[in-house]
Amino acid sequence: MANLFKGKEGDLRDSPVFEPHPTDDELEMYSMGRASELETIRIEEHVLLCGYCQDRLQDADEFVALMKDTTNEIAAREDAALDKQGRARTVAGAVERMGTPVITGLAAIVAVTIGFAVYQNQRAVSTPTGEAAIHLVANRGAGMTPVIGSNASSVLLSMDTSGLPEERLAVVVVAEDGSPVWASQVEPRNNRALASVRQSLRAGQYFCRLSSKSVLLREFAFRVQ
Question: Taking residues 67-88, what's their average pLDDT?
């Protein structure tokens, strides 16, 4: 990556007037959208001039994205465990209606054991709340338009970048009237790019645009309702 803060006088990081770099924890909080408003402004102003922290922020974004993927996988396993819990309760109720106390007790023990395992599993998982994930594959006007709820506090965009260069791209979300809503940069990896829109979106039609050097490469559509 080009060093955006290296000038004629040398590296600005060596200057006593240059603001200290954000810590790893601060960058991760920013990537998760949990930094305060003042911290967000400070980090964004710093990263704008600091190529070193641009690379660090990219690493933090990739770590947060991996953590979200892992969380989704754990949530899917929890749903499967809850289904097993529901089936166990159904069996316990059926056996109880048979009027056999011993068998009824055994069925109840099975149901309670499964329920306790699910409870323990739920306690061990900490998931970010209020974020909706949306997968953008088809170009605008092709295929079905993905839909998310307007109650989401943030939106994780997963964009198909197959056929696009694996270099830093600009991503912009615009409303139906063309007015910009959110903008950032992404680094495609393995035919996919992830971006977290750290704000709620009103109901309506939106378009997500990927471009490089002001050239539009791909445009997706999604709806909030």
Answer: 65
